[in-house]
Structures are given as C-alpha cells and as structure tokens.
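Q: May I have one protein plus its fold?
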Amino acid sequence: MELTEYDHSIIAKNLSPDIAALADRYPADVLNAAIWCFRPLPSIKPKNVEFWYGDSNDTNPDIVISDGIPRVWIERPDGYDPPVRALQVDSNWVFIEIEGQVVLDRLSEVTLPPIVSDPTLLLSGLLRLRSRR
C-alpha cells in the first residue's frame, strides 16, 4: 500500500510524530489508527471480534470469534513475535500496536462478548474449522 499526500496529512493531523514515523513501514496500520482514533463506537455488544497478527500485508485475521464462538484460528509457530497486533470489533478498529508501541486504543469503549467455554461446543467448532482446511 502506498500512502497518498492526503493520507499523510490525516496521519500528521491525528497522530504523534513518533507514531506517524512508522507509516513508511506499516502504512495500512498507521492510516487505520489515524482514521479510527476519533470515531465513536456503537454502544452495542459486538457480534464479531477479529484479531490480526503480522503486518500491513496480512489480508485475513488470525482469530475470528463470532457470537462468542471461535470461527477462525490460524496457528502461528512457537515464538512468533509479530510486529503488528490489531483488534477489530464489528468492522471497527479498536486496538493497534506496532513494534510494541500502542498507536490506537479504544478498548475502554468496548464490552467484549464472553467466549463460549462449553468444551463440547468449542471442540465441535474447532473440528469444523479443521475439516474446512
């Protein structure tokens, strides 16, 4: 992704210079932080929670929880330390961390849904995931 002059102006206006400096290496993540930092979240319990680990080039979430049930779970190798960690709730970016620096944190506005802890239900969901591979 290549940032436009307009994108750079949004980043400069909404983010601190040290965070804006990460835009060349993580353009999508920094731009998401600049765009979403002031948008209000709806005051509802979310249906979908997506966790993204990696960098701006990743196009799919690593973990997806829908209605409290894990739907996607991508296994990463032991010791994997992604440069970017991000959380999206009902298509709203609520948390982005780049190289250990928090660039967007709206989690105080979100009540995350409980994760279903019924072992039978979790196991059947994971088996369904495995059978789709």
